[in-house]
Amino acid sequence: MPELSIPVVEGVRLASVPARIKDWERNDLLLVELAEGTSVAATFTQNTFCAAPVTVAKEYIAKGEVRALVVNAGNANAATGVRGLADARATCEAVADALKISAEQVLPFSTGVIGEHLPMERLLAAIPGSAGQLDPAGWELAAESIMTTDTRPKIVSRKLMINGEEIAVVGIAKGSGMIQPNMATMLAYVATDAGVTQSLLDQMVREVVAASFNRISVDGDTSTNDACVLMATGARGEMISSSESTGYLELYRAISEIHIELAQAIVRDGEGATKFVTVQVDGALSSEEALTVAFEVGDSPLVKTALYASDPNWGRLVMAIGNAIQGELDTDKVEIFLDDVQVVSAGGRASGYQEQAGEQVFSKPEFTIRIELGRGASSEHIWTCDFSHGYVTINAEYRT
Amino acid sequence: MPELSIPVVEGVRLASVPARIKDWERNDLLLVELAEGTSVAATFTQNTFCAAPVTVAKEYIAKGEVRALVVNAGNANAATGVRGLADARATCEAVADALKISAEQVLPFSTGVIGEHLPMERLLAAIPGSAGQLDPAGWELAAESIMTTDTRPKIVSRKLMINGEEIAVVGIAKGSGMIQPNMATMLAYVATDAGVTQSLLDQMVREVVAASFNRISVDGDTSTNDACVLMATGARGEMISSSESTGYLELYRAISEIHIELAQAIVRDGEGATKFVTVQVDGALSSEEALTVAFEVGDSPLVKTALYASDPNWGRLVMAIGNAIQGELDTDKVEIFLDDVQVVSAGGRASGYQEQAGEQVFSKPEFTIRIELGRGASSEHIWTCDFSHGYVTINAEYRT
Fold first, then answer.
1. Contacts B50 to A, Cβ<8 Å
2. Which of A93, A376, B141, B226 matches a 20 to 30 Å C-alpha distance to B4?
3. Helix, strand, coil percentages for chain A (3-state, nearest 5)
4. Contact of B270 with B218, CB cutoff 8 Å
5. Domain covering B12-268, topology
6. Measured between alpha carbons, how far is residue A127 from residues A186, A225, A290, A312, B26 in Å?
7. Smallest Cβ distance to B319: which of A224, A300, A321?
């Protein structure tokens, strides 16, 4: 990733241009044009202090057909009050003028610093020219133009055959800080040229986001601007209208895999991250309990600094488990495995466990912490990263 | 702090000795002897994976009269299974033998690394000798002997007159990591020679802990071993049995102040902390909502790294507020002040706010972030610290 050859999604054209949203020399404005008849479904941040573009995008997507997306990096247009809302609407107007559609058919997105007004003059000046650069092969540039503190672009694609017709699915995402449970996601855009009815696409985006972007944690903070958009242009094949339709399962699997790979890519590129860790919780009373334990482990600064240090400090794991579990916990039933190495049995150090074996696992760039609670039959997993000096450096210096 | 002259608490004698719990040359075992008739009340960690000594201390304190405490630093005796429980009981037995009391009159406490068994041979060997060193003037050595990653001892005292009799209150505490809301506290021991009935003392410890140790945050992790013990020997003055009793208010104020100062001392000495910050939340719908917002702000890694960088990145404050508030938030009513500098009004940058003014506040070693939610009449405050390279270094290297 980025992959060698990103397929075209028929019905989608993209343009990335430099609008100087910040004082930098790079593409920071992305325009996405969608063919008429495209179904668009989205999930947005649960943060109640959500950004102006999120408010406007939620309003517009509810009104009907979406024909374009406009995304800027470098400024989140969040906590910008009435003027921020006006700026988001004006951005949509400008895109609508350039594409000869209506403003309410344009969804706006912003990512970057909170609390500053968009440089509207430069932003609006860049839009007409960007329309002339729309290109079906613009995915890779798009993945780069939406980056902020990301160190690499995130793009995943699949090709599949449905009824003898080749279908493409392409997704891009950005995000490396303010990443947490209960979010909708950071910014992610996934498009296919398959046709999917609106109601089925709405259901699909909820399900795949729950199993992908809502399973990751970098720092436990939920952004004001998270959004995930799933688009189906219908340019190829027949309309998929239910889970019984031909090709539904194949398409669902491809879309789901792309979401999971993008979500994992965000964790791998987490601010300062040096490790990619799966936290698997088994034997919980409920799915909710399993997720709570997994996130308590994956979000704990003490656990994350131990990951960074390649120190299999399993005491911090049991501390996090004890914080997550409400009511009574029979600690004698708790087991913990680092990949295949059992470190905890009966709530204490496993007999025969050698520190060196745990260190070997914790020294790997990727591994799994598996927790057996012995309370029930529910399992869940999340993906997290470590907490390094790099994280502190990035976030202590981000604005300056 | 430590203060120049720590008064004696009549009825309390302390001994600190080196037991080589870890491979270090320092006092790491504290014995506290209490006069007959002393009332003892305590709160313990809410972590369900609580340590062996916590389990034993809860059991013994429920049985009746407490005559001694034994505290070791360097090993938490947590996640140590059946053997850990046996070790805690054996420690109490040894103290009981030395002091000619029963094991159930001894409360055990441990702090340090999780998941390792206590070095019982060395620990038990140190106890008989320590009994011979019990000294009413042993408070300062005691404050030092219970330290782990603390960089300085924490001790606070007050003298007050009740009915013409001089009463002393002395408290010590330790703790600089695994500090979070919903805890009982780290280790804290507060003693007075006033007399207070058991039921009144139980009520006092709950109230003063809620307003002190439960209002601080260093890293959002709750320890397996937290405990706070309040002791009233009754050696001086008359028994205080209700909030109507003579001297109750004065004693309550002194005890409350000592708890708050010790709690604040833990934050000031937070792992890697360079800033001491009060987060004050006003205008909340409920006390609970105010506390949730305060802790979301005080626990956010993004806010804490901004504190470290002296960067008044108020966008991260509104992000944290939006994560804390459930349901609808009228962001137009939100105001934020850094000390006297208003940075946010009507949900956005306050008109007239100059970045330089915010930086001046954030550069101070102590300041207040005040958030006005404009939703109701409830207020709460917490104390927190920043998140520095020092935190990562300490926690990435603690065990090694």
1. 322
2. B226
3. 35, 25, 40
4. yes
5. L-amino peptidase D-ALA esterase/amidase (3.60.70)
6. 23, 21, 46, 52, 69
7. A224
Query: Which residues on chain A are in Cβ contact (under 8 Å) with B47?
Result: 319, 322-323
pLDDT in tens, A207-242: 998 888 888 876 655 556 778 899 999 999 899 999
Burial call B339-352: b when 16+ CB within 10 Å, e when fewer: bebbbbbbbbbbee
Q: Which amino acid is at A377?
A: A
3-state SS of chain B: helix, strand, coil percent to 5? 35, 25, 40
Give the model confidence (pLDDT) of B288-298 as tens digits: 999 999 999 99
Closest to A214 measured CA to CA, from A381, A32, A25, A26? A381
Q: What is the tens place of the pLDDT at every residue in B96-145?
A: 999 999 999 999 999 888 888 999 999 999 999 999 999 999 999 999 99
Burial of B389 (0-12, 13-18, 19+ CB in 10 A): middle
Which residues 43-72 in chain A show a CB within 8 A of chain B? 47-50
Segment B203-231, tens digit of pLDDT: 999 999 888 888 887 665 555 677 889 99
Pairwise CA distance, residues A311 & B393, whole Å? 13
Say which residue the tokens 């001392």 belong to: B265
Show the tokens assigned to B177: 């990591």
Q: How do residues A290-329 score in pLDDT, each as one tens digit?
A: 999 999 999 888 888 889 989 898 888 988 898 889 888 8
User: Is B185 a known active-site residue?
Assistant: yes
The residue with greater pLDDT, A270 or A167, is A167
Which ipTM score applies to this complex?
Answer: 0.71
Residue among B38, B111, B149, B185 flagged as catalytic: B185
| Strand residue runs (E) in A76-131 | 106-113
Buried-exposed string A217-246: b where 16+ CB fall within 10 A, e elsewhere: bbbbbbbbbbbbbbbbbbbbbeebeeeebe
* Domain assignments of chain B as residue spans, ordered by start: 12-268, 276-397
Structural fold of domain A276-397: Ubiquitin-like (UB roll) (3.10.20)
Name the token pair of A308.
């960074």
- B348 to A81: CB separation less than 8 angstroms, yes or no: yes
Q: Do domains B12-268 and B276-397 have the same CATH topology?
A: no
Round the average pLDDT of chain B to a whole number and report it. 89
Q: What stretch of H or E contains A294?
A: helix A287-299
Residues 6 or more apart whose CB falls under 8 angstroms from that of A327 comprise B48
pTM (global) more than 0.90 = no
